[in-house]
Amino acid sequence: MRNNIVHIGAQELTYEIRAIVAIAEKLNRLGMKTNMENIGDPVAKGEKIPLWMKKIVADLAMKDCSYGYSATKGVLETRQFLADMTNKRGKTQITAEDIIFFNGLGDAIQKVYGLLRHEARVIGPSPTYSTHSSAEGSHAGQKPVSYRLDPDNQWYPDLDDLYLSVKYNPAISGILIINPDNPTGAVYPERILREIIDIAKEFNLFVIADEIYRNLVYNGQSTKPISDLIDGIPAIAMRGISKDFPWPGSRCGWIEVYNADSNPLFKRYIQSIVDSKMVEVCSTTLPQKAIPLIMSHPEYPVYLNERRANYEKASNLAYDILKQVPGIKVNRTNGAFYMSVVFEADRLTHTQTLPIKNPEVRNLVEELVSQRGIAPDKRFVYYLLGSTGICVVPISSFCTPEQGFRITLLEKNEKEFTRIFHTIAESITAYLNS
User: Fold this and answer.
1) CA–CA separation, 433 and 429 (whole Å)
2) pLDDT tens across 411-432, in order?
3) How does strand 206-210 pair with strand 235-240?
4) Domain 10-47+301-432 belongs in CATH node 3.40.50.1100
5) ∠ at Cα 61 (58, 66), nearest 5°?
6) What is the enclosing helix (H) or strand (E) of 338?
7) Residues 397, 399, 405, 406: what is their CA dihedral angle, to the nearest 10 degrees?
8) Which CATH number fits domain 66-295: 3.40.50.2300, 3.10.20.440, 3.10.150.10, 3.40.640.10?
9) Rounded Cα–Cα distance for residues 410 and 414 (Å)
């Protein structure tokens, strides 16, 4: 090329959650049955959308207005409905103008980071959901900046690490919180959220709170939305319908902006997000129109309670199986539908293997693990996939030095779910002892 056309942050755009699908597909072509436990799509794992919800969507699809553009920020009636829901809590008051719709939170995340000044950094958790870390690193053209989540303390944030990271890196302008957390399934108590907000207040930072799993908290745990606690600090909450309804294929998410007028720079930054959305015109209309009808339906809270109960049961089944396995650290999942497992230090090597019966599959896995610089946990994930057909995601791909894997709790068949986790437990033991 006449000039280098590659963006300075292109190397940070990685998404192992889907990248590993290509490997699983190769195994399928070689005749191997796979269990896809890598991606958080409840529908793909057998979640049945209730008939009353389908009827709402079907009725909307019969209306001509569902096929037109919406306002740039989103359908006004829906934004007002959501603002009213936040305002009922009485802590932070917003209007419909403080809500902006996007084509899924992936779209929102790209714009929120992409429209920051190049030098401004947002510190996020480690491990973290890779869409956040990739977007933040790409915008800056550098590795993401992060604070540690502690696997020895229920995956709670290491607040000392966060404080010192912010104090000694003046480029940090914002703090990302994911609560409930992806990939760990941790749910943060109010005291931790308040301490993070205190750090933001001391150093004059804004806060981003990814709350996409806000309605999926169980095992007797509780938390607070950031709107209850933010206390005048500029903040953005990220929400959507892909996990709650669940309707991931709708690509429908939104941000709620708090205290935009408290700082002129933050206000101008938010306006740049609106301007960017205006260039795009708007987000998909039909799912926005469905939100008030579904969320106000009398069956909706009943349906959410049923789903929470199912995930609670799954989290305890998985925890009870894996906590018995030597050589790993595992915490009970209390929110969302993921579990992150890490290996104890120095337990992984580059010589460990699992038996693979199919010679073509074995050759493929051996070729993959021979790649230079492959992470030890990725090596384990490839051997697990080749040996058992169970597809998980290496935890090192979530912007962390920890070595382990993330798995979903979405399998609906309890017998199959139990088999999968027993197989993983046996495979870990066999791998560490190989």
Assistant:
1) 6
2) 999 999 999 999 999 999 999 9
3) parallel
4) no
5) 145
6) strand 338-343
7) -100
8) 3.40.640.10
9) 10
